[in-house]
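Per your request, structure below.
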């Protein structure tokens, strides 16, 4: 999965332990943080990883004791969520792996068209409550939309090089800035909606394969979910595209509320 073929259309499925190549199409399952560096361990305690067996599928974000936000293009019949991870291979104590009992894509998401990235958002209900602490804790949802030029953090285990894939063992982070919506629309004519927000860097920092579903965090609040972008990743004129969380607050809150 590669990014453009939008991150959503780029769905990466890479075999972790052996570093085998993946096959897929969406950033969700394929995006990785380019132009970044290893995160300070557990500095992103809301970061989640979606796994099918031992295969890393996508990123995700803990927003409640047993609720994860991720990209709808990451949907699979069965997966587990890992919390408290930094190194995917080495255990250092806080890791938790919890099965997903329900996947709830946004009702307007069109799963039959890989080129349609609208409403690329999904809630996952975990079987059990996460054990919360300093290394595993939910993030607050932003209560207002981002402003152009705002500095934000992206994170994930996606590929650190593009187009050649090179998946890191440890969580990577990078700083990006929010693009004006007009500049975003100019980069991707006819593809950008109010439900999307673009972020990038003059240095080429970007999410990429394997990062899909991961967080865009601004001022300590969740503003976006990694969705899609350019292929290859990391072009300063073609920013990463994120599902714009501020446009979906009602749906998120109502859905969680209806499930008790």
């Amino acid at each position: 999965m590669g990014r453009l073929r939008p991150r959503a259309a780029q769905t990466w499925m890479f075999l972790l332990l052996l570093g085998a190549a993946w096959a897929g199409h969406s950033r969700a399952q394929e995006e990785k943080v380019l132009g970044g560096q290893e995160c300070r361990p557990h500095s992103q305690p809301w970061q989640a990883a979606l796994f099918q067996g031992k295969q890393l599928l996508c990123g995700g974000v803990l927003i409640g004791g047993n609720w994860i936000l991720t990209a709808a293009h990451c949907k699979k019949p069965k997966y587990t969520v890992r919390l408290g991870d930094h190194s995917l291979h080495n255990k250092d104590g806080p890791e938790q792996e919890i099965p997903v009992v329900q996947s709830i894509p946004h009702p307007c998401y069109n799963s039959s068209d890989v080129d349609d990235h609208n409403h690329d958002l999904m809630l996952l209900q975990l079987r059990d409550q996460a054990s919360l602490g300093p290394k595993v804790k939910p993030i607050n949802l932003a209560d207002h939309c981002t402003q152009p030029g705002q500095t934000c953090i992206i994170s994930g285990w996606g590929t650190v090089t593009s187009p050649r894939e090179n998946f890191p063992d440890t969580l990577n982070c990078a700083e990006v800035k929010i693009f004006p919506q007009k500049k975003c629309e100019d980069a991707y004519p006819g593809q950008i909606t109010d439900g999307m927000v673009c972020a990038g860097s003059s240095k080429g920092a970007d999410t990429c394969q394997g990062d899909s579903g991961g967080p865009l965090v601004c001022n300590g609040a969740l503003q976006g979910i990694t969705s899609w972008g350019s292929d290859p990743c990391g072009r300063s004129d073609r920013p990463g595209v994120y599902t714009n969380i501020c446009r979906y607050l009602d749906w998120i809150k109502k859905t969680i509320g209806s499930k008790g």
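Residues 144 and 246 are 6 Å apart (CA to CA).

Regards,
D.
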